[in-house]
Amino acid sequence: MKGVLLVNLGSPDSPEPKDVKKYLGEFLMDERVIDVPLWARTLLVKGIILNTRPKASAAAYKKIWWDEGSPLIVLSERLQDKIQEQVDFPVALAMRYGSMTIKKGLQELVDKGVDEVFLIPLYPQFAMATTETILVLAEAIRKAHFPQLKIQDLKAFYNNTDYIEVLSNSIARHLEGKDYEHLLFSYHGVPERHIRKSDITKSHCKIDGSCCATPSPAHEFCYRHQCLEVTRLVGEKLNLKEGTFSTSFQSRLGFDPWLQPYTDRTIERLGKEGIKKMAIVTPAFVSDCLETLEEIAMEGEEIFHEMGGQDFTTVPCLNDDKAFVDLLSKWINEWATSTSIEA
Ligand SMILES: C=CC1=C(C)c2cc3[nH]c(cc4nc(cc5[nH]c(cc1n2)c(C)c5CCC(=O)O)C(CCC(=O)O)=C4C)c(C)c3C=C
Ligand SMILES: [Fe+2]
Ligand SMILES: [Fe+2]
């Protein structure tokens, strides 16, 4: 029997510092997230970050936590439930980090008689720190615990025409009647080094003004190219005028150069330049989470107001948007009948 495993990032079990510390420990010790030698990662994570960050992160989580739990988990569960309504075989949900493990998700499917799994990383763009770490871990778990299981994965769908339409329609609907002057597309950042490491040609990605716009096989795994493409394609679909929309990268951690421009500095600049009404959309996240609800909707708005801005509108993530549910269900049903997906 066929089955589906949706995989998102994960959240702590609660917004208390001890649970946040446990979650961050697992997350940041992942060699595809903080990609330095084990000794340096251990020193950085266990010696520095885990002694300072959990308290501040827990305070941030408390601001956005819902009665039902972490928004990211609750919204992913709603997505799972709605997809299940349109699919005749089991749909399970797992998280890369935290208690809802990939092993438990695969076990749940196997217990229901599944022997062929469609693995869906809930990220439109490929990144070493998100999609790749899910695929590598899922394969290791398969080999060790479920060697009979076949697993196929959904490729990054950042430039899929239907996805761009669903995203564009959602943005248009949420911004209807709002006369914003600038629409900022803010994506989660990654260290520049991650982009170079994922370059299969080893020479294409220069992280400059042109490499991501010059066709290359490297783009299949280039997070920066894929983010810039989402902005370009949505801009085209919504007929946005040049200069009224742009791309930035948020949530940087540490002192290495991350993808630029940074979102907080961009919001600051737009405010300083006299923009009074701005809107912001976060297409690297399928589900609203700490990074969208706190860092963007709260901190971002505060920065904008401090710089003289007045209206700051955040577009929700696709979450359990009907058209998005329909699209994922369509891909799943296509996989179930043809076992191959066209991007
Ligand atoms: C080196 C550190 C990090 C990399 C690289 C990174 C990449 C990355 N992350 C997401 C999506 C999410 N990240 C979230 C939270 C979060 N991310 C980092 C660090 C890196 N992320 C930290 C330390 C945290 C925890 C919060 C904090 O302390 O600030 C979340 C939200 C989780 C939630 O519970 O709500 C998401 C989602 C992507 C897409 C990405 C690379 C493309
Ligand atoms: Fe992150
Ligand atoms: Fe590039």
UniProtKB/TrEMBL annotation:
GO molecular function annotation: lyase activity
EC number: 4.98.1.1
Pathway(s): Porphyrin-containing compound metabolism; protoheme biosynthesis; protoheme from protoporphyrin-IX: step 1/1
One family name in Pfam for this protein: Ferrochelatase
Keywords, ordered alphabetically: Cytoplasm, Heme biosynthesis, Iron, Lyase, Metal-binding, Porphyrin biosynthesis
Record InterPro entries: Ferrochelatase, Ferrochelatase_C, Ferrochelatase_N
The keyword Heme appears for this protein: no
Locations listed in the record: Cytoplasm
Keyword Lyase in annotation: yes
Domain of life assignment: Bacteria
Binding residues for Fe(2+): H188, E291
Catalytic function, reaction form: Fe-coproporphyrin III + 2 H(+) = coproporphyrin III + Fe(2+); heme b + 2 H(+) = protoporphyrin IX + Fe(2+)
Role this protein plays: Catalyzes the ferrous insertion into protoporphyrin IX.
Family listed: Belongs to the ferrochelatase family.
Name of the protein in question: Ferrochelatase
Species this chain originates from: Psychroserpens algicola
